[in-house]
Every structure is written in structure tokens, then in C-alpha cells.
Amino acid sequence: MLDPRSLRSGDSGPETGPAPAPVSETIVAISTPPGRGGIGVVRLSGPRALAIASALFRPGRKDPGGGRIAFGRFVDRGGETIDHGYLAAFRPPRSFTGEETAELWAHGSPAALRLLVEAAVALGARPATPGEFTLRAFLNGRIDVTQAEAIRDLIEARTAFQAKVAHDQVLGRVSSAVNHLKDRLAEIVARFEAAIEFSEEGEAGRFLPEGGLLRDVGELRRGIEDLAGTCERGRRVRDGVSVAIVGSPNAGKSSLFNRLLEEDRAIVTAIAGTTRDVLEETLDLRGIPVALRDTAGLHEPRDEAEAEAVRRARGALATAGVLLLVLDGSRPLRDDERALLDGLDPARAVVVINKADLSSGLGLDEALRLKRRHAALEVSAKTGAGIEALRRRLEEAAGSGAAATREETFITNVRHKDLLLKAAGALRRAGDGAVRGVPDEYLIPDYREALDRLGEITGEVGIDGIYERIFRNFCIGK
Ligand SMILES: Nc1nc2c(ncn2[C@@H]2O[C@H](COP(=O)(O)OP(=O)(O)OP(=O)(O)O)[C@@H](O)[C@H]2O)c(=O)[nH]1
Ligand SMILES: [Mg+2]
Fold first, then answer.
1. Could you tell me the domains of the chain?
2. What is the CA radius of gyration of the chain?
3. Most exposed residue of 125, 217, 300, 387, measured as fewest CB within 10 angstroms of its CB?
4. Is pTM, for the whole model, over 0.85?
């Protein structure tokens, strides 16, 4: 495990923001979300956590004492009751932060919780900065950086699947994949170094397999690149993907939007040009959050408001991860629709022929061509026909098909991906050098570089500005 002190030095200084507090201080914060609720928790961590919490607590007469959780009254410094509830004590190292920790479980009253924090501060605790509890867990070796990052993802998860993936990472899924790669690389480096050291004694061969280690290095590099490659889908799980519904006025975009959301969200009328603003709602497609956007029909604008509506629709079209192009099946295609179809990227577009409940106005040839060239789906926003097939198609386009398998390890964090690619790049340099005949000892720095980048993922190798980069955007109290 890392030595916490070695990391602390890099985090201080004006450029990297406030230094993490000396762990000799006891910190305090409200750990439950702002607002009212059944329970509210004030957390204290540090060497005086239990002393301060005890000073704020009067056990009830019936509490037997001696337990980790006691019931009683919370009082201010003057002994006046603030609230009643439980005091939970966690002794090091078996606490989240690895330090002495106390939690005061009171009622979820913002005013009472604030009084408790103020009373703790009056007794010598310091208000915690965002993420400081998690930072301490890291500094005390309770979790590595990937686990800290995953805790934040878990707190911010919007779908059940996101939460599960984040939780797997809290348990160390990414760390163990990375550590496995790192161990293999460390072994290769050790063999190279041994071979170099003993080369003059003619014993180098003992440390290197027949044909050298290059094949192992190549295999390892591919393993690292594969893990980096899982980030694309991992990001979709984490951040979701945006789907813009586009098409001509009156094609039924808003009707389809409502149908997919199963909610009467957007205004639908028979008048062309109903939708003007871009509407956005989250759709949960088998665990992947989809930002579904309804847009104005694309047409020649007649006034200023329409011009702006079309401009916004085009903006949504340009930035969407996936396009859902809606055609009106009850009438022939328009020229601008043909142009739109020609410009579609099949990998990120789904084409639907809406109003399948009406008699077709497309013409048989056109309908066939749309199905063949664009795998167009016939749907009816009005009756719901074809909507399940559309959902499945959107799922595929959003890349969630495989994501529903939780067994597979994938990364969700761009920081991890960048470091994996840097490690793979260093291995590639070393491999290329070896092929060109560069002696092994000159390649060792590249191997070491790869090892360091892998170590940086878990935080074993120091990360510059770690507080700013990892912990600062946590909420206070976590
Ligand atoms: N028969 C039938 N009518 C539909 C269907 N979908 C939409 N409509 C009708 O088509 C008209 C336009 O529907 P909207 O959903 O407002 O169309 P839109 O594409 O959002 O239109 P704009 O916002 O004006 O661009 C309304 O009268 C809807 O009731 C469908 O599947 N079948
Ligand atoms: Mg509309």
C-alpha cells in the first residue's frame, strides 16, 4: 500500500488549491443531503471525533452503555438539548476514513443539524471541505483513487445499472484489473533487469524465454489497449448518450417523444411548427440514461421565432450521439428529407416511418428503399405499433446491448483511459525500439514509464494536484 505522507506533499501549494487538512485535525460536516428528511447525519472524523461527539451527547437512562451505538440526547455546549437520536462510534482502523469516526443520527432538520455542527466546531472540530472524508480514507490507505472516483459516480448515478457498475468499482473492480496488468509488467521489467545485470556472465538467457520477452510485452500492451477501449461504452453507461428526434414539421416527432417517455410531455397539434424549444427528458434504456430531445421541424422559417427554432434543432442534430429521424409515412418524401437521409451516418442514426396506422403515401418503391438502405422501422406514435422494436433499435444504437452484462470489466473514467493509453504508448515505443535493435537497457525507462502510468490510475504513484482533480468535486460530508 502507498505511504500516505509521500502523497501529501504534492497536494499543497497555491497552484493546486487548498491543501488537504492535516489529519491531526478533527473534521465535521452534515453528511445527508440538504433539506428536510426523516434522518440527518452529522459526521466527525479525526483524533478527537469521539471526545467531541461524547461532549455533545447524553445517553438515555435506558441505554445500557458500552455499545457502538447509543441512544440519547444531543446537547449544545451549555447542555441545552438540540435533538435526540443515536451516536454511532467507529474506531480505527475499521471506519470509512480509517480514523476515529463518530456519527450523530438526528432528525433531518437543517436547523438542528447546523446547531450540532456549530457545537462540534465550538469544541474544536473544523468544518470539512468537499470530499475530505473520502480523501482521508484514501490517505489512510482504506481505498485507492479508482475507488474514491467510483464512490462519487455511485452518488451521482441516475439509473440502477449505473449505480451497480459504480458499486462494482467501489469494490475495486478497476483496481484489480489494473493491478493485474501492472503485476505482469513488473515481472517483465524484473526479468529484463536481471538479464541486463547478468548479461556479462552469459547467464542472461536464464531470465528470458526463448525468443525474448517481446511477445509478452505485445500481449500485455494489447491487454492494456483493450481495457482502454472499454471506456467508450463505459462512458455511455456513466454519462449516457443523447438522442435527438429530428424531421420535418408535423412528422410526429413530439408524439413519438411522448410515446417513448410514456408521458404527455410535449405539446402535439395538427399545426406544423408546434415545437420550438428543444425539450429534453431522460429515458432509461436498459440502464443507460438517454437524454431524449424533441426538436422543431426542419423547414424554411417564416419568422424570427421559427428561424431560432430551426437553428436550435440543427444544433441538437449536430451534437446528438444518435439521431432519430422521423418521416411521415402518410405522404411522399420531400427533397430536404432525401438530402437528410443521404447525409446520415448509419452507425448513429435510426430512421422511422411514422403514422403506420394511416394508408401509406410514400409509394411502395420508396418504402422498400428506406427499409433496405436505412433499415427504416414502421411505427405509429398514435397506436404504439412498432415502438418496442424502436426501443430495441435505440438501445443498440446507444451501445447498451452488451452493457447489460455486468460481468465484464469496463472502465468509465477518461482519466483511467488516458493513463492506460500512455502506458500502452510507452510499451509500443519499447517494442519498436527492441525491433530496431536498441539494447534492452535503453528501453528500461519506457517500461518504467508504463509502470508509473498504471500506478497513477490507482494513486499508488503520486498524482499532481490530487485533491483538486479527484476529491474537490465531491459533496461536503462525503
Ligand atoms: N394518425 C396518426 N397521426 C399522428 C401520428 N403521430 C402524430 N400524428 C399527428 O400528427 C400531427 C403532428 O404531430 P406532432 O407530434 O405535433 O408532430 P411534430 O413532428 O412534433 O410537429 P412539429 O413540432 O410541428 O414539428 C398531430 O396531429 C398528431 O396527432 C401517428 O402515428 N398516426
Ligand atoms: Mg413537435
1. 4-144 (3.30.1360.120), 241-397 (3.40.50.300)
2. 30
3. 300
4. no
